Amino acid sequence: MATIRLKKGYDLNLKGRILDPSIADAVSSELYAVVPDDFVGLTPRMDVREGDHVMAGAALYHDKSYEQIRVVSPVSGVVKEVRRGARRHIDAIVIEPDGNNDMLKHDTHGDQKEVLLASGLWAMLRQRPYDIVPSPDVRPRDIFVTCFDSAPLAPELSVVLGDDKQYLAKGVEVLKTLTDGDVYLGFRPDDEIEVPGAIVNTFKGPHPAGNAGVQLANVKPVNKGEVVWTLDVVTLARIGQLFTTGQVSHETVVAVTGECVGQPHYVRATMGCLVSSLLDGMDASNTRIISGNALTGSRVEPDGFLRAPYRHVTVIPEMSKPDEFMGWASLCPNRFSIYRTFTSWLLGKKEVSMDARIKGGERAIVRTDEYDDMLPMDIYAEFLIKAIITFDIDKMEQLGVYEVAPEDFALAEYACTSKLELQRIVREGLDRLRSEMS
User: Fold this and answer.
1) Residue spans per domain, the chain
2) What number does CATH give the domain 2-11+29-245?
3) What does DSSP say about strands 44-46 and 142-146: parallel, antiparallel, or unpaired?
4) Is 59 helix (H, G, I), strand (E, B) or coil?
5) Helices 233-245 & 168-176, crossing angle to 10 degrees?
6) If you average pLDDT over residues 218-243, what whole number do you get?
7) Cα 421 to Cα 362: distance, rounded to the nearest angstrom
8) Which burial class, exposed, middle or buried, applies to 250 when counting CB atoms under 10 A from its CB (0-12, 13-18, 19+)?
9) pLDDT digits over 284-317, tens only?
């Protein structure tokens, strides 16, 4: 076991943290949905039509390039709607539950890769390079599992995992058959669990220490021509459960957090449920509802759905104090800045209130090293962003584009004085590079 200390990064101490680890049951959801955009790298081809009945775990669609990769229904019921956007892009597949909870059972005695592909769990894995769902044709060099989440207001994965810890050893056993290398688990100090067959590392330091990409970059970086898989510990437990019971549980524990939540709490729900069922009648006017954390999550409406990876909802003010005297130049001691622009840092690391405003306009990149200060990886982040914008493939490769994912730049995006959408830039750059290289 090795302990790795990360000095770069920053912990945003937002208001709305969960204080009580007890878990309540969510209000019953009238609809559930799967959003294909959550599974990057897959081009969906529908296996069902509107009006078809599906079991929980039955395939809704498969990938155009690899028909073995399937994305499945989280509940049993009727396919009520296939929502399409521009150019017939599939925005969501909506299912109306029948209340029977009929669940598909898998024969786990066959080829383990085929079982994973059919179960829908394969779509929960991610591949470096490109941060996409892995190709079944490639064996990864290693597999990295992050066992904690360091994002703002993130749930404790030990709470989300619960009694499913018993399936971790089986999950590692299955992953070991899919790689010629090792399976690495990354924990916080004092939370580590010895799992047979896995190499356990502990990480000290601020966010983004919990990102799988940051962990693998500080243990065994990805080089050109290599492939590494990443996942979180909750998915690892589901893999172990599948090969123990033959079924995949689509239940999940969701942290409902944020300044606008009266009592931040954990709720037990089912993947893809309506966000309104988690908020339980909360007044959502003048709020920003985020499926995920405040840095990387997706904005959803109250009648929207819980998005993958299905374990966090954050609710913050849309716009607080829009008519504040003197605006950004206000001397209010509660104003916050990473760079100590205001005097609030003199009051210590207390919880801070933030709304959804950008508070600035996009401008040219100025060399300040602020990206590097927020990214504990051995890359020159500002130069990499410039190479991606100009799509200079040689420089992108030399500067480590194969190691990164959009989420690794989320904190740098928050700290960026140029107000650039770094996650979007990285995502579009990776997609374009993959298209160019294929």
Assistant:
1) 2-11+29-245, 252-331, 370-437
2) 3.40.50
3) unpaired
4) strand
5) 90
6) 96
7) 9
8) buried
9) 888 999 999 999 999 999 899 999 999 999 999 9
